[in-house]
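User: Continuing from earlier, I have the next pair ready.

Assistant: Great, send them over.

User: Here they are, in order.

Assistant: Folding the first of the pair now:
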Amino acid sequence: MTATFSIETSRQASGAIAIVRIKGADLDAELERLGLGSVGVGEVRLRDLLGVDRGVIARWNENAVDLCVHGGRGVVSTLCARLRSFGIAEQDPGLRDAWPEAADEIEARMLDALARAASPRAVEVLLAQPARWRKGRKQDGLADGSTLRHLLDPALVVIWGPPNVGKSTLLNTLACETVGLASDMPGTTRDAVGACVVVDGLMVRMIDAPGVAADESDAVVAEAVELARSFVSSADLVLCCSDGVQEPPAVDGPHLRVALRADVGRAGWRTDVSVSAHTGEGLAEFARLLRQRLVPDEVLHDARPWMFWQHAPGGSGGSGCHIASSDRAENQGRRSSPSG
């Protein structure tokens, strides 16, 4: 048979070591062609691996050999590209082969989704799916997959409002790092910046859009506002933010009206929640409301089966911290929020 290769370790995250397995009927000839030299069955050798890395070759039987390299994604990707350049094709294992511990196809699908799901809230829901599917689909149908997909693919949440009201500080607090510039000077954020953050167990892609300007005659300001509007139009949820003085702009579609700088004073307009990134006030309630708007409790706890494999996880990892819907979030906000 023609030689093939497969990645035997996780494709979703880097590790200390990655294993790339080569299989073929005439493996000795393949190893010589690749410049890897002779490796007998049961032998382990330290070799230069196609000029990509210096690693271990372990041969388990006549038809399979493992190349063990450093687990960085760049190393693995480059090694795979080198193998393809030699005409060795990548084998695409079926789910049952990829997850041999699975009892059936549904369980294999669940394990595959679980390995890639970004949100902690996804774990309990996915683990329950095999049992729900084994009971069979009943007349009451399926769970709301269009909503539950946010457990796998992080929703796009856009922070939108006037300049100089604390939007960047809110994002910095939620991300537990400085993502956007926070300043008392209007218009500091001219480009959209963002981070992946977990709020009440749900990971979202949160973008701090440029502030809405009253005067768009300046070309740079107009371009920034247009960029912000493009994000708002494609958002799964818009956070209409402002301070206690200015009312945020209205938007169509799902949104939350968020009053910032609650430690300074209460807003004079209708709000869904008031928060202070400086003290942590209201962050727990904010997290709960945001998650509820994207994945309501009644959908999250729906006992009907979910056709989750139609919503492949995007694998959106990245920086960010957890804002829990509990009293602990108040303390966490105080510890991690930037001043300003």
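And the other member of the pair:
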Amino acid sequence: MLRSDARGPAFELSDERHHAVEFPSAGVSAHRSQRSHPLSLLRRGVRAQGVKRRVLWRLLDGRAGHAAQSLGLARALERRLPLDVIDIPVTRRWRPALDGFAGRWPPGEGLPAPDLLIGAGQSAQINLLAARHAFGGRAVLLMRPVLPVGWFDLCLIPQHDHPPSRSNVIVTRGMLNPARPAAVRDPGLGLILLGGPGRHFGWDEGRVLDQLRALVARRPGRDWRLVVSRRTPARMCRAVTKIPGLRLAENGLRGDALYRLMGRAGEIHVSEDSLSMIWEALTAGAPTGLIGLRRPARPTRLTRAVDALLAEGLVAAPGTAGRPPAPPGLDEAGRCADWIRDRWLKED
């Protein structure tokens, strides 16, 4: 099993580094890097200025969390080699996938053949295999599959999902994501990220508000900004505006705008119901603390994963008065991209 040291966020993503390219024959809206060449050059094996551009198909099931994982890997690969990224929506319908095993996968018709296919989520699994069968390329799944692991060329599986020991498995610390540290960090900026009610934790509004008041009071000199998610109750959003020294971030802050803010923050505190946001904060290079919620009677996969972060000392426990611990310097997307480039995508 290959180890790399380096869920979905509650926020929608925006692909600010990509722009749409229409392929009418395929019936999908794709995206390619702004550094890409004209569409006439977007063919597998074409060399521009002596450099071979690779083609990556990014299969999207409509879930923001899964899109964040694949976006993190796609951008890491873009930073390492000339790459055209094409986004292809997929669904749970079986017919397109079954067609793929017969040598025809309709969502990919008319598109440049892929060198690499990536995706996360249940819908992506069967479609990755079908697309690979019809058009070739390497299939990379960013999760623990329900299908046999050996059916994929590579699986990138977070450590908390207990990956099997296989030659085609890379164990990652947390989920891949697009967050990155900023070149210049603002030590006076404090960021708070809130999730909302879910099945793993009990949402206690009073308890959350008490922690927010205490946090702001302990470090009154910080510019504290609060970012809520789609799961945050409306009543909670109204209540936080009454806390002195805490301001609600502008409405609609998400995607790249949020990741840039995370990369600049001097410290970040995240409600412990969102494991993805915790890992994004750590990947952004910010000292990270937790906002505690009510735990279930029995531990769940998510609560165990949060407890493991606390045991490793990667995050500060709820109510900790001091500054959160120094971040570990994670770049799991970059490490996985290095592995893929070095083994599959180097120049011939």
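Worth noting for the second one:
Residues 2-177+333-345 form a domain with the Rossmann fold fold (CATH 3.40.50). The first strand starts at residue 2 and ends at 3.
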